[in-house]
Amino acid sequence: MVMKMSFNINYKRIERISSIIRSLGLEFFKSIEIIDPQFNSLSRLCSFCNPKLVPLLGIVNALVSYALNCRGEKYWNEFCSHMALHCNSINNIESAISSVIEFLQISQCNKLYKEAKVRRLKKLLLCKNIEIVLQKQCHEVLAGKLLQKTLAKCLGTEQELKTIVFAVKMYYYGYKACLKTDLVLPMDIPIPVDRRVALITCTANLIDADCKDIKTVMKSSDIVRKIWSYIAELSGVPALHLDSFIWIIGKHVNLRRDKPSIVASILNELRDFYCEDLEKLVKELIFKL
User: Fold this and answer.
1) CATH class for domain 11-33+187-285?
2) Distance (Å, whole) CA 10 – CA 209
3) Does the domain formed by 36-178 have CATH 2.30.110.10?
4) Closest residue by Cα to residue 62 from 217, 172, 158, 139
5) Digits of tens for pLDDT over the chain (289 positions)?
């Protein structure tokens, strides 16, 4: 049983950060998605696979993208490099799931809980509803949280679970990369809470937690989701569109580094997007360091 902790939420900090995000605007954060390593990995598959199947591969792999023994960037690169060599045999959901199961047997970055992950994908294979949903147009699949609800029902789990909402994001990435379908994701889909999101929630002083104990923060993922959903509502930028930006920031945050060097490394990676509000937001997100 996971013991949930109770943290106080700093609503003044939420308002401050929401204000800067609102000033930057939705298109700013959508433009940053194209430098997300996971987006770039899926983009590479567009040249090797049937473009219509890339969003499907994104969903299937996202559902087993947890407890990795490599960084997420490295794992998605490994996955897409493998699929680029084998996607000629993929033509439907059954063959996509089978290909990902085969990949799990040799993956160097996804070695943990392999049997549980395979069982999860086999469960999805038995669910006919997902096949029906994925025959719809992209905007229909995303509208009303249809994909999120269907995946959760197929797998018998909560809609807000990290891998469920992450699968929605990777489906969107697949369409954006390969089919040039650029949509705005629903406002009511929460952020997928992983270590980086939990860390930035803490360093931004959005909760009164010890940033050295991120595992404890992650046990209260419902609080983290609530915070970013509220920021999304106040700023007008859906939480899933904030996720890639937060993920990039989190990559640079190390509690043993000094704040100026962290700010400099983040702004260097985001130099093509630089503006004063970006620098303000970066500093606010590492406020407690």
Assistant:
1) mainly alpha
2) 11
3) no
4) 172
5) 444 567 899 999 999 999 999 999 999 999 999 999 999 999 999 999 999 999 999 999 999 999 999 999 999 999 999 999 999 889 999 999 999 999 999 999 999 999 999 999 999 999 999 999 999 999 999 988 999 999 999 999 999 999 999 999 999 999 999 998 889 999 999 999 999 999 999 999 999 999 999 999 999 999 999 999 999 999 999 999 999 999 999 999 998 999 999 999 999 999 999 999 999 999 999 999 8
